[in-house]
Structures are given as structure tokens and as C-alpha cells.
Amino acid sequence: MTEMSSETPKAAERKRLYIKTYGCQMNVYDSERMRDLLTPLGYEPSDTPEGSDLVILNTCHIREKAAEKVYSELGRLKPLKEDKAAATGTPMTITVAGCVAQAEGAEIKKRAPVVDLVVGPQTYHKLPELIAEVHRGRGDALDTEFEVEEKFDTLAAPERQVDGYTAFVTVQEGCDKFCTFCVVPYTRGAEWSRPVDQVVAEVRALAAKGVREVTLLGQNVNAYHGAAPSGHEADGTWGLGRLVRHLALIGGIERIRFTTSHPKDMDDELIQTFADEPKLMPYFHLPVQAGSDKILKAMNRKHTAAEYIAIIEKLRAARSDIAISGDMIVGFPGETDADFEATMALVRQVNYASCFSFKYSRRPGTPGAAMFGQVDEAVKTERLARLQALLAEQQQAFNASMVGKRLPVLFERDGRNAGQLNGRSPYLQAVHCDAPIEMIGQIIEVEITGASKNALSGRLVPEETRAA
Ligand code: SAH
Ligand code: SF4
Ligand code: F3S
Fold first, then answer.
1. What is the pLDDT of residue 215?
2. Is any atom of ligand 1 closer than 6 Å to the C-beta of 26?
3. Which among 143-147, 281-285, 460-464 has the top mean pLDDT?
4. Helices (H), 209-330
5. Ligand 2 neighbour 223 (Cβ under 6 A)
6. C-alpha 60 to ligand 3 mean position (Å)
7. 11 — pLDDT class (breaks 50, 70, 90)
8. Ligand 2 pocket residue status of 221, Cβ below 6 Å
9. What is each CA distance from 228 to 123, 232, 338, in whole angstroms?
10. 368 CA closest ligand 1 atom index
11. What is the CATH number of domain 156-281?
12. Contact assessment for residue 324 and residue 356, using Cβ atoms and an 8 Å cutoff
């Protein structure tokens, strides 16, 4: 930590920091925490890489396209690094963080020598030291150990800056599921849960800064089993349902969400929490990936299509207005036309409010990459188009079903048109509505008057008839 104190900024030493984030919400959270960690060292966020002292690419390795984006970005940064050195005499430090850093390690510097520093998702709490090492001219700046516990202990200290009324909070990291298509168990390491006390402290601090909605994050968030809080040590660990109920008691927190869950880790307590905790939003992301049991088995998903449907039915019985979202992969090795039709049939049965869908991408080091029966790109393209057309229809119908309803909307920011605000419904739909600026940060009832595939519009419900 000596490096930290030697870098304490004087006013003249303000430095510019540019962070570009790829991938999932967990990377968004990590990027915010990196910023928070670097602020006391005098780094101020910048919207562009030009002229920045420190550039961090927080990367994603999930599909080939995501991973390759990093190298094209590094190509664009090279002349900017040279320009900066020529203009100011002080070099730009280029850092690759996140899941590509973890997966490729030292290979990154070989392929892109413009990179100064490589830091994995579980060691970015050491960025201040690592950056100081780069500045001292040591060439071995690479840290991709798995130190998740130490990371969160270190991160507890720096103040979280808050950008608005919603915030992500990572509560669980890593994954032990080893789906055969997926790199996450290799890039994020083994499953680990933050202790309840630590999560509560972070959410309390966010609430004190005006945050109204928190989304609890984890690669496998419903596997959460954090150490019970002080006063409850005898319980050992708490599951996610209990954590959610506990966080709902924190004053100022009005909405709670969590993502991403695995069907195998759905327990009755969590399902019951949807029934009786009104602060838990009735919108649930539960990926299934495929509808054919043969493919689910080859994917090592550890459940059948019927078991997945049974969970959805239980959730709907617990909370009739719950909406479901998911993730799908088409063209996993061995997927026949009949297997794909089983995916289409499952989608029709579930009727998703929204769903992400991807062509299978062969990832180095995963069992799927070595399987026989890799599917032709053209077949994947055709299947994805059919699936996406069905999902778009379902999403449009879900949004249209909101017209005429009254929904509580958390207004987050100015809208595009004068006098308009943008907010989110309980189902995460964007809602545009004419409303006074003072309503930003409040949850107000809106009557929905219009719907498109991606957004809703509405008008304020007159105050005397508002329920929320
Ligand atoms: N932890 C989450 C998913 C993380 S990855 C979960 O278990 O659901 C997000 C999504 O990317 C996955 O749900 C899957 O649909 C998709 N994905 C992961 N690996 C992929 C691959 N090799 N090819 C295509 N899509 C993939
Ligand atoms: Fe990847 Fe499967 Fe783990 Fe999700 S559950 S992160 S898809 S290995
Ligand atoms: Fe990508 Fe890593 Fe998230 S691979 S999806 S950034 S966990």
C-alpha cells in the first residue's frame, strides 16, 4: 500500500481515466469499483480515450466476437498512446482487465504489445499497486490470481460513487456448474458468496446516497450462501431469499432484483419470496439455453426441459404477475432440426417477456469446443433468425398487454422531449412519460397508453387516484 500513499494527488496531478466495459452487469459493477478505487489517486473519469493517462478495457470472453472486440480496440488505442506520449511526455497506461485478461493472461501482451498491464476479475483491487509498478518501469505487470475474498475486503473501504437511483451490487462470484459451452468457471473461478454483513453495509451506504433500486449480481446468484450476519451466526449461511427479505428492511430501498439464476439452484424459499416480498420485482431472469433434453444433457445443464417448466409454473403460482426472461443458445454441437424445434416449443410454452438468444460460439478450453457434430454457421444463422422472430413477437405482445394498466415507474432521468422523463416499470421496461423534473428518483404510478417492442409510454395517474 506504500505506492498508494506516494501517489496521493496534489491539485496539479489530476489524471484522466477512461474505462470501456464489455460483457455482463458484473463487469459494469467491477468497472465502477475500479473507478472508485482510482479516484483517491487523482484519476478523474473521461468519456473518451484521447489524452487519458490510464485506459482500462474491462473485457468479456463469453463469445468469440466479444473477445475479438478487445483487439480491435487495442489497435485503435495504439496511435492515441503514441500521440499522448509525443504531446505530453507522460505515457498512457493501457490495462486489459476482466475475463479476456483472465483467460489469455500473458498472451495478450504478446499479441498486443501496446498493453502495459493485465489484471483479472479477482485481483483488480490491486490496481493501485500494479499501476505503480508499471510506472516504475517493471515489465511483469500481470496479476490473474483468484483472490475474491481479499478483493471484497479491500473494496469495502473506498467510497462507492453513485450515478443515479439504481445500482448493482455483486453478492456472489464465480461458478461451479461447468456448462460445456461456457468460459465463466475458468474466467471467474469457483463459486463464492460475500458475507451478509458486507452486502448489507454496501446497500445501506447506497440507500443513504439516494439509491432506490438494487440489483444483486452473481454469475450464479441463486447459489448465494453468504455467512449469516452478526447476531445470527448460529445459522451458518443464508440463502438468497433470506438475503432479499433482509435487504428489503433497509430504509430507502424500494425495489430489489437479482440476476443471473440457474434452474438447479431454485429453492422454495426463493420462490416464496416472490410471493410475499413486494419489494422483490415480479420480473425474473432464468436462462434455460435449449429445449431438447438431449442438448441440455450435452450442455451439462443438470436439468430437463420439464423440470424448467415446472419451476416456471411454481413461480407463476406464487406470483401471478411474474414475467420471465431467459437466454437461449442455438446450434450447440449435435443440435438437429428436431432438437431446435424443441427449443421453439419450449419458448412457446414459457412465453417470455424478453429473452436473449445467441449462436453457439466455440470457446477454447471448454468441452463443447471439442465435441463432434459442430453445426454449420448457415444453419445457426437460420435457426437464430426463426427463434428471434418468435421472441420478438412475444416481447411485443407482452409490452402491448401493459396498455391500459397502471404501473409504478421509477423515474431515472430526463427524456428526449422537453417535459418528459424516462423511467423503468417493475418489468424493467423503459417508460416515457410527461412529468415534472422533481419526480426524478421517485416511484410514481403511470397509466400506460402506448407500447412498442422496446418501450412503453404513458401519462401520470392523477394524484388522488394513485395507488403508489
Ligand atoms: N451465469 C449466467 C450466464 C452467463 S453467460 C447463467 O448461467 O445463465 C450469459 C449467456 O451467454 C448464457 O446464458 C448463454 O446463453 C450465453 N453463452 C455463454 N457461453 C456461450 C457460448 N459459448 N456461445 C454462445 N452463447 C453463450
Ligand atoms: Fe456459465 Fe453455466 Fe455457470 Fe452460467 S451456470 S456461468 S452458463 S457455466
Ligand atoms: Fe463476459 Fe465474464 Fe461476464 S465472460 S459475460 S464478462 S463473467
1. 98
2. no
3. 281-285
4. 240-247, 268-276, 293-298, 305-318
5. no
6. 5
7. very low
8. no
9. 25, 6, 47
10. 22
11. 3.30.750.210
12. no
Q: To the nearest 5 percent, what fractions of the chain are helix, strand and coil?
A: 40, 20, 35
Classified by CATH at the fold level, domain 11-148 comes out as Rossmann fold (3.40.50)
Q: Give the other-Cβ count within 10 Å of 347's Cβ.
A: 20
Residue with cell 496531478: 13
Which ligand ends up closest to the CA of 329?
1
Ligand 2 near 429 CB (within 6 A): no
174 lines ligand 3 (CB under 6 A): no
pLDDT in tens, 73-124: 999 999 999 999 999 888 899 999 999 999 999 999 999 999 999 999 999 9
pTM of structure: 0.94
DSSP bridge partners of 289:
328
Domain layout of the chain by residue ranges: 11-148, 156-281, 406-465
pLDDT exceeding 70 applies to what percent of the chain? 96
To the question of domain 406-465 being in CATH 3.40.50.300, the answer is no
Return the DSSP state at 10. P
CA of 264 to the centre of ligand 2 (A): 11
Q: What residues are paired with 226 via a beta bridge?
A: 238
pLDDT digits (tens, 9 = 90+) for 26-59: 999 999 999 999 999 999 999 999 999 999 999 9
From the CA of 362, how far away is ligand 2's center (Å)?
Answer: 15
Answer whether 156-281 and 406-465 agree in fold.
Answer: no
Question: Could you please report the per-residue DSSP string of 190-222?
Answer: S-EE--HHHHHHHHHHHHHTT--EEEEE-TTGG
Pairing status of strand 443-451 against strand 406-414? antiparallel
